User: Fold this.
Amino acid sequence: MLKVENVSKSFGPVKALRNASIAVGAHEVVGLIGENGAGKSTLMRVLSGGMRPDTGTITIDGSPVVLRDTSQANRYGIAMVFQEQSLLLNMSVADNLHLANEQPFTRFGVISRRRMIEAARERLAKVGLDIDPSQKAGELSFAARQMVELAKALSLEERTNTPLTILLDEPTSVLETKDIKILFDRIRSLKSRASFVFVSHRLDEVLSISDRIYVMKDAEVVAERTAGATSVASLHAMMVGRDLDAEYYREARQESPGDEVVLEARSLAVGGAYRNVNFTLRRGEVLGVAGVIESGREELTRTLFGFLPQTSGVMLIEGREANLRTPTQAVAAGVGYIPRERRTEGLVMDISVAANITLARLDATMRHGFIDHRRERAIAVEWIQRLRIKTPSANQVCRNLSGGNQQKIVIARWLTANSRILILDHPTRGLDVGAKEEVYDMIRNLSAEGVAIVLTSDTLEETIGLCHTILVMRDGEITARFDAPPHAKPAQVALLEHMV
Amino acid sequence: MTGFAATESVPVSFAERVRPFTPLLLLVLLSTGVNIAEPGFASLETASVVIADASVLFLLAAGLTFVIMLGGIDLSVQAAASFASMVVAELLPRVGYAAFPITILAGLVMGLASGFVHVKLRIPSFVATLATAGIMTGLSLLMEGGRTVSLTDEGREQVAWISGAWLSGVPNVIVIAIVVAIGGMLAQRYTRFGRYSAAIGAGEPAARAAGISVDPHKIIAFGLSGVFAALAGVVLAARLSSGSPDLANQLLLPAIAAVVVGGTAITGGVGSIGRTMVGALIVSIVRIGMTYIGVNIFAQQIVFGAALIFAVFVTIDRSKLPVIK
Assistant:
């Protein structure tokens, strides 16, 4: 029995885990669900030895253990199958399976490839994968790679006496339906040899595979249910944990957009990613794009900011044809971008708040062709006050600020650059609830000021709650279009029907 | 508003506050140190020698600073300087004063070429500049079959404005270095190029997403590196009254050391021309100080190697680098 008790972990001011406790019994599949940023991945990393908790204990069969790193977690029979797959694609399947554990095949410092491949074949058989172990991992399908990872995790049983616990972090996110079924069959048949922790935000999957389910929300474990005694709907309610959705998303402040069309897409397409995308975006409108992974919506978002130029079709910005080949052209055309990767794409972390705010339009600070630092500071101070950015000064380096304040700085930058269209790419990812609410307020403010917004979000509720109009995409095409006026919002299931 | 933790900013530690001033402190410590070991070091005369020596090094390192701030490296500066010394020595008898702008232009072209190879052909800057260094060295060797070109008497007169002294004995080299330093510092603080360089060096993806055209800026930085290296080459040729394919050969390590010891991070983002000026002075003090107190001249490269390792060790924040390659 593996037990995690009262584990907490903070990153600077952000609490990623707060007194989280879970237990995993022998031959049990435990589900772990929660929204993005609820703390699931952090808990998995603590369990797999990838991260030390600030406080709390981990026990195996009652005796406390310290998981200093992955290999130590391995010694206690805990192995992780990673969300971003951890196979080295330039090496063979056999090499991958035995990576960092070549000793049994080594004699006088020389590795026997033949014996390694044989052993690999045995291991692959355990997960029902019939492939040539000398094949490069990069040549395999995602589903097969996942199975190789599983085989790798399972191979721990040869090295340890303790019962295995295998952590599966979002294993289905890259799989197709038939492969998910195969994976689940394997998990069920392997239950006799190991316990599993299954992390996902697809509730139906979790419900069908797990014996017991823990629900996480805002860095805490908020509920524990046996699979037989709960439903997708009630799990969902616990995970989201709020009833006042209308208020939460500031629906009362949702005003009708203007008539003026600022952005129009006509038969927009990018190679194999998406095609025949048509829509109009009006002044002050918030347009949501919903869709699962590989629906093409992420690529569409990147096209709108010039990262991924369309291969056919036309984009019109304020009535003029705009061929955005680079972000530089997008910015010049009045488009701004708020990325999901705030730390790498959103802000230059090690330059000042003021420099970040003026980065997209340095002209605003210039006098006779040179930067006027007083003018720059004045611009920064104005935004710091208007958006209530909490920073000791305009000269503060951005790295030291909280996520919500960093997000405000990105918004201030685009407002300084006079962007009339903002592409919001998962703008609340990794923010805590309060910071999210501030972003929602900001979206309403921007919309009221006439800024047109294209939004992709991690959750359907957010999309539905915030948007005037919602496009649903599936397999690279728009499958439905919903109007979402305040207090007459479409239901999630209605959207879901067109997503999968 | 809920959700924002009370600690909005991490207090800056004492070490963080002091860090930018450590090179200056080191400079003072070193000069007093050498002076204690060998009284008489601190004279106007030696100071003038040290600063003139630092000036040449600084010119070479100044251009390099732009490249390093962007997170790249230019290993071709010594080859570019030697190449420039050959070009200027060859051209002076033929075209007179026009030799100076032509040489600088040649440096610019070679620098831009390095930048183009690095940015457009997507070749890591250390390989790209190592290759262009080879090309420039080859060109210098071909010019006179590897021989040194001495300046004629007329040539010496034409370079007098560089090799001479100003007013009561301040070498003109120092004046040139000061002009370059002030220009560089102003460019970094007040121009678009300076701001974008800092942004690109500190976070290229974010700079790109802010709409900055990253590629041309990088190429220009390499162009500037070529210009300053050529200027250093011209100055060296003037001071030594000759051009030679290996004139600046021992200067690459000290030049990189000057940039890094001054406090510019080898990983980019943090740094300035001003810091490189301090770094160049430190390196020159060490160089001349070592000679002064009798350290074998062949042993000096050992000291620079060690100093470089130490300087990189203290200036970069490894916690921000996932993998060191």
